[in-house]
Amino acid sequence: MTASPVVIITGASRGIGRAIALEFAATNARIGVNYSRSAEAAQKVAEEIQALGGSALLLQADVSQAAQVETLFQQVMAQWGRVDVLVNNAGITRDGLMIRMKDEDWREVMNLNLDGVFYCTRAALKIMMKQKSGRIINITSIAGVMGNPGQANYSAAKAGVIGLTRTVAKEYASRGITVNAVAPGFIATEMTAQLKQEELLKLIPLGRYGEAAEVAGLVGFLGRHPAAAYITGQVFHIDGGLVMG
User: Fold this and answer.
1) 139/127 Cα distance (integer angstroms)
2) Helix 116-131 crosses helix 152-172 at what angle (to 10 degrees)?
């Protein structure tokens, strides 16, 4: 891997994506900051990256759209000429009980949370295969491991990401490309702010929500550290002990 790796992070304008961007920025990485609508927030993240010694390239794209993903990767290649790390982080929720779930709520979540990972991974592989190196980290969820009431769409998409991770890891290991997934539990972000915390905390052995920076630290290790070079096809739970086994 180059001394100053090129890292693309989808959904990097807030929450876990922002924390991952700052984690890589601390090692002087060149970071593609993808966002869909939050241009102002993405600009702030870019400024934070630069303040930490990294370089930033703003990449506006809806990663559920294949054509926009292709343009995103073309922009990165035009700017830096390589892609060393891809972090598929972008995701949404449209919660509701299965019997009441609207078709559009199912489709929208699947389009971004699963199709988006497919489109970005495919685009990255074309580049990484030529380099004969690369690391892909997919942000899945414990919901994809154990299911979660009211999240049939989200859980199905995140379970799909796990299957995709393991398959791509097997297909491209011979090309020097590692592919792993990180499955956060309940992390203190805007997405979890509306949940009933007291009830959830009883289920978590460590008794607290995780921090975005803790997830970012694991992603940074998998994406950059030499000691992670022999790790592929794995799903890492970072959930305070919520899911064991």
Assistant:
1) 21
2) 10
15: left (phi over 0), alpha (psi -120 to 50) or beta: left
| d(C-alpha 161, C-alpha 114), whole Å | 6
3-class DSSP state for residue 34?
Answer: strand
Cα gap 241→226, rounded to integer Å: 27
pTM for this one? Answer: 0.95
Task: Please write the tens of the pLDDT for every residue from 141-181.
Answer: 999 999 999 999 999 999 999 999 999 999 999 999 999 99
Radius of gyration of the chain (CA): 17
Task: Give the pLDDT confidence of 11-47 residue by residue, as tens digits.
Answer: 999 999 999 999 999 999 999 999 999 999 999 999 9
Residue 154 annotated to the active site: yes
In CATH, the number for domain 6-238 is 3.40.50.720
Quote the pLDDT of residue 198. 73
pLDDT given for residue 13 in this prediction: 97
Q: pLDDT value at position 178?
A: 98
Catalytic residue among 35, 154, 172, 209: 154
Could you give the CA distance from residue 228 to residue 134 in angstroms, rounded to a whole number? 12
